[in-house]
């Protein structure tokens, strides 16, 4: 175990695996419920053209709440919960990779950097297909077509149940793009989340260490952790948000026509539209983005 200014780093061999996975899933679900409305708002801000519908995070929140109610803020949530699987794969890969890298380097920064990037690679391979479906569901609005696909409605005008909508979206993706449609934006996701994860963990430990210098010795470790997490997330968001905008637009493929453009063209076409609004929203999502 490493000890830097009383900051204890718990490694894989110190974990109670049963508690780790049970409590990990429970806590992650609680976090998802809390931040999912911001995830939905971020997605809509990134995809919309300029300020055609929403003028910022608060404006989007109010308009969605008025149009669709509370359920509108959780559109696509049930599908998104399947990414909990990738979250557990993420933390397992992260811890095992740290243990492996420790045989070659004792630097906590090196271990965090390599483990974070590796964990993101594994997680995104599972997450991207779920994200593609979830994001299309997020773009559904009552009486309006924001996304590339539109779910069916019942003759009475009521929306179908969530899993009926999901089935519609899956069929339309398969019909339009085949299986590769579920991996739309996979490369952009890797270019977004591998750096995000690789940056988040070193900054998390860095901020925790710096806070330990500034705070009294009797200050609880949990205070360092509670403050370091948001600081690391905000730092990673600022650095990686441009690629996150590209990833969302490639996966939803509505306003940015990027299928035949090289990566540089995608950057020029997409990044300047919506990244500033979305970065403010994304900064509230306080877990490594790659673990979603």
TrEMBL record:
Organism domain of life: Eukaryota
Membrane association type: Multi-pass membrane protein
Keywords: Membrane, Transmembrane, Transmembrane helix, Transport
InterPro entries xref list: MCP_dom_sf, MCP_transmembrane, SLC25A44
Pfam families assigned to the protein according to its UniProt record, in alphabetical order: Mito_carr
One function term, GO molecular function aspect: branched-chain amino acid transmembrane transporter activity
Residues passing through the membrane, by range: 20-41
Residues making up the signal peptide according to the UniProt record: none
Solcar repeats mapped onto the chain: 18-100, 107-210
Family under the similarity heading: Belongs to the mitochondrial carrier (TC 2.A.29) family.
Protein name from the UniProt record: Solute carrier family 25 member 44 isoform X3
């Amino acid at each position: 175990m490493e000890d830097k200014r009383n900051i204890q780093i718990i490694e894989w061999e110190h974990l109670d695996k049963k508690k780790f996975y049970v409590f990990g899933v429970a806590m992650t679900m609680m976090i998802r419920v809390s931040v999912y409305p911001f995830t939905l708002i971020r997605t809509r801000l990134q995809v919309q053209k300029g300020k055609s519908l929403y003028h910022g995070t608060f404006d989007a929140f109010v308009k969605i709440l008025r149009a669709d109610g509370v359920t509108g803020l959780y559109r696509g949530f049930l599908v998104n919960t399947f990414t909990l699987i990738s979250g557990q794969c993420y933390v397992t890969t992260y811890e095992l990779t740290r243990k492996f890298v420790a045989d070659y380097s004792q630097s906590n920064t090196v271990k965090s950097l390599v483990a974070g990037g590796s964990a993101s690679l594994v997680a995104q391979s599972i997450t991207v297909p779920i994200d593609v479906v979830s994001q299309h569901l997020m773009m559904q609005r009552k009486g309006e077509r924001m996304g590339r696909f539109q779910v069916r409605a019942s003759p009475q005008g009521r929306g179908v149940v969530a899993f009926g909508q999901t089935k519609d979206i899956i069929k339309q993706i398969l019909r339009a793009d085949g299986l590769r449609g579920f991996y739309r934006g996979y490369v952009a996701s890797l270019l977004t989340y591998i750096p995000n994860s690789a940056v988040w963990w070193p900054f998390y430990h860095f901020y925790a260490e710096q806070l330990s210098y500034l705070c009294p010795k009797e200050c609880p470790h949990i205070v360092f952790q509670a403050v370091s997490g948001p600081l690391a997330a905000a730092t990673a968001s600022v650095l990686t948000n441009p690629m996150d905008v590209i990833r969302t637009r490639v996966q939803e493929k509505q306003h940015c026509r990027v299928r035949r453009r090289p990566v540089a063209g995608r950057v020029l076409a997409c990044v300047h539209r919506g990244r500033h609004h979305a970065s403010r929203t994304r900064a509230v999502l306080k877990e490594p983005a790659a673990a979603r």
